[in-house]
Amino acid sequence: MQGENSQNNKKTLLVFNCHESWVYQLGSLGYDLDIVVGLVGRHKLAWDEQIRPLPANSRLVTLSEARSSSTCYYCIITHNIIDLLDIKRRPEPRLNVLHLPIEARIIEDKSDIAPEDMKGKLRQYIELICGRVSSGALFKGKSWGFTDDIVVFGSDVGDYPAYSGEIASGLRICNYIGIRKQFLLWQLHEQAFAGLPVRIVGYNPGMEGVGPSKNWDDLKRLMRSHRFYIHTANPDLEDGYNMATIEAMSAGMPVIGNEHPGSPVRHGVSGFLSNDPKQLGDYARMLLADRELAVKMGAEARRTVLEQFSMDKFRAAFLQSIETARAKAQSRTAKL
User: Fold this and answer.
1) Among 186, 319, 325, 335, which lies 20 to 30 A Cα-Cα from 11?
2) Beta-strand pair 255-257/226-231
3) What's the sign of the alpha-carbon dihedral 61, 98, 138, 239?
4) CATH superfamily of 157-308
5) How far apart are CA 36 and CA 58, in angstroms?
6) What is the pLDDT of residues 214-264, one digit of tens each?
7) Can you say whether the dihedral through the CA atoms of 60, 66, 72, 78 is positive or negative?
8) What is the DSSP string of 269-328?
9) Interatomic CA distance for residues 279 and 73, integer angstroms
10) pTM of the predicted protein model
């Protein structure tokens, strides 16, 4: 199995578009990318350039085109059982990436299947195809029973202009808040920041005055200029951070959020953490009144990204995941 593109002799990955921010980082791997778009359940059928530009060396394909492509893919990257089944007739190695803990997946899919049954189905199918499962965090991997391959996403602080924080307002980037309030501890958010200037960015139908950024440059401008970032999350259903949180920290923003065992925020150093809405509100007022403090804490947040979420770490780990997936697929071929 050579996994090379028959036309240009370059290695090509086939990846389902789970969300643009995560897929964009695959442009750092050095492979060509065929990105499957037009998938059911996405807010846009095409690639959403309001979130990210297309990654380097990539092209968009439909599921039908992916199924019939003459390219021999170096690896196929999926994100759930549906993706795996959608591409089941292709012979290449599979790497399935878990982005949600199983409890959150069941809620989002409105499924009545028991968690153990869902875990069993995924494990059974992965074993059948000799695939590989990777997870974006240990918390997610544990919930599914796959902890051998943990690859935390990366962020390049060099992509973000110097932080200024001149706008005395909080910022939160989140889609579909209306159906994700349980995940986001939204009641805590509302109680803590009631009456305070907070800008919400994202696809949130029904929320007046809320919309997505114009593009990635616009999103980076918002992060550079706002005073602090907000991330609250249910410890049973969400990590203590998401990609937007790490991107905000990359931009030099301090973060305010709830106490979460997975939070990368150091309380009093790179942001503030509390489960008390009054305390969170007080911390927000402190940063709104003291831009120099926000700059100082934001510098520590940026340092955290450099140490824990660098693109070099992501690249090395994910390249290894791909090679492990290929080795598993080759072991299946050898048995046959």
Assistant:
1) 335
2) parallel
3) positive
4) Glycogen Phosphorylase B; (3.40.50.2000)
5) 11
6) 999 999 999 999 999 999 999 999 999 999 999 999 999 999 999 999 999
7) positive
8) TTEEE-S-HHHHHHHHHHHHH-HHHHHHHHHHHHHHHHHHS-HHHHHHHHHHHHHHHHHH
9) 52
10) 0.91
Domain boundaries, the chain: 12-154+311-335, 157-308
12-154+311-335 sits in which CATH class?
alpha beta
Partnered with residue 60 across adjacent β-strands are 35
Shared fold status for 12-154+311-335 and 157-308: yes
Question: Strand, coil or helix: what is 188?
Answer: helix
**How far is the C-alpha of 252 from the C-alpha of 178, rounded, in Å?**
28
Residue 260 corresponds to which tokens in the numbers above? 């979460």
| CA dist., res. 211 & res. 215, Å (int) | 12
Distances (CA, A) of 308 to 133, 137, 153: 22, 12, 10
Q: Three-class SS of residue 33?
A: strand
Name the burial class of residue 145, with classes exposed (0-12), middle (13-18) and buried (19+) by CB atoms within 10 angstroms of its CB. middle
